[in-house]
C-alpha cells in the first residue's frame, strides 16, 4: 500500500518517502532512521564550521598586511564563501530535520504529504496512519515491517462507522 517503485533506483521501496539526491538512494521504511541520523550529523558538522571560520576571518588584521597579494585575496574570499556556505547548509539541513520530525510524528511520508490529492488511499481519509505522536514515534523507533493495508482497513472501518 505505501510501496512505490523508484525509477531512479530501480527498486520498489516499502513506505517510500523520497529519493534523496545527496545520498543517491531512496528513503523508506528500512533506512529512514539512518537518513534522520545522517541529517543530524550533517547539521552538527555544518553548524560548528562557522564558529571555526569566523575567528580566522576577523582575527587577522587584513589592513596591516604590507603586501596584499593574490593569495591573501584568495584566502579572504575562501573564508567568506565557506562561512556563507555553511550558514546556508545549516539552515537547509535544519529545515529538513524539522520536516522529517513532523513526518515521523504524523506517521506520514514526504510522498504522501506532497501528493495526498493523487494517492487513492489518502483521498478518502486524511492521515489514515496517524495514531498520535507517541505511538507514531514508537512505530518509527522499532524496526518492523508493518502491514499497512491492515492498519488502513481498520481505520477505514472506524471512519465508515461514524454516523453524522
Radius of gyration: 23 Å
Shape: elongated
Q: Helix and strand string, N-terminal first?
A: EEEEHHHHHH
Q: What is the subunit organization of this protein? A: single chain
Strand order of the largest sheet: 1-2
What percent of residues adopt helix (DSSP H or I)? 55-70%
Assess the beta-strand content as a share of residues.
5-15%
Number of structural domains: 1
- Tell me the distance between the termini: 28 Å
**Average pLDDT level:** 82
Note poorly predicted spans. Answer: none
Catalytic activity: L-cysteinyl-[protein] + hexadecanoyl-CoA = S-hexadecanoyl-L-cysteinyl-[protein] + CoA
Subcellular location: Endomembrane system
Family: Belongs to the DHHC palmitoyltransferase family.
Pfam family, one: DHHC
Give a verbal description of the structure:
This protein has 164 residues and is mainly alpha-helical. It has one domain. 60% of the residues lie in helices and 7% in strands. The chain is built from six helices and four strands. The protein has helices spanning 32-59, 70-106, 110-114, 120-124, 133-141, 148-161, and strands at residues 4-6, 11-13, 18-20, 25-27. Strands 1-2 form a two-stranded antiparallel ribbon. Strands 3-4 form a two-stranded antiparallel sheet. β3 (18-20) and β4 form a beta hairpin. α1 runs antiparallel to α2 (70-106). The model has no long low-confidence stretch (mean pLDDT 82). It is a multi-pass membrane protein. The chain crosses the membrane at residues 35-54, 74-105.
Amino acid at each position: 500500500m505505501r510501496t512505490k517503485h523508484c525509477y531512479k533506483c530501480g527498486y520498489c521501496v516499502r513506505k517510500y518517502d523520497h529519493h534523496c539526491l545527496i545520498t543517491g538512494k531512496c528513503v523508506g521504511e528500512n533506512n529512514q532512521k539512518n537518513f534522520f541520523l545522517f541529517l543530524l550529523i550533517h547539521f552538527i558538522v555544518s553548524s560548528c564550521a562557522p564558529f571555526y571560520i569566523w575567528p580566522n576571518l576577523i582575527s587577522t588584521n587584513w589592513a596591516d598586511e604590507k603586501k596584499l597579494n593574490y593569495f591573501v585575496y584568495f584566502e579572504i574570499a575562501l573564508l567568506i564563501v565557506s562561512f556563507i556556505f555553511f550558514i546556508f547548509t545549516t539552515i537547509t539541513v535544519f529545515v529538513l530535520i524539522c520536516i522529517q520530525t513532523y513526518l515521523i510524528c504524523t506517521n506520514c511520508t514526504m510522498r504522501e504529504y506532497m501528493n495526498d490529492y493523487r494517492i487513492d488511499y489518502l483521498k478518502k481519509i486524511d492521515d489514515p496512519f496517524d495514531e498520535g505522536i507517541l505511538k507514531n514515534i514508537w512505530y518509527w523507533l522499532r524496526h518492523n515491517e508493518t502491514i499497512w493495508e491492515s492498519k488502513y482497513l481498520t481505520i477505514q472501518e472506524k471512519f465508515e462507522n461514524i454516523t453524522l
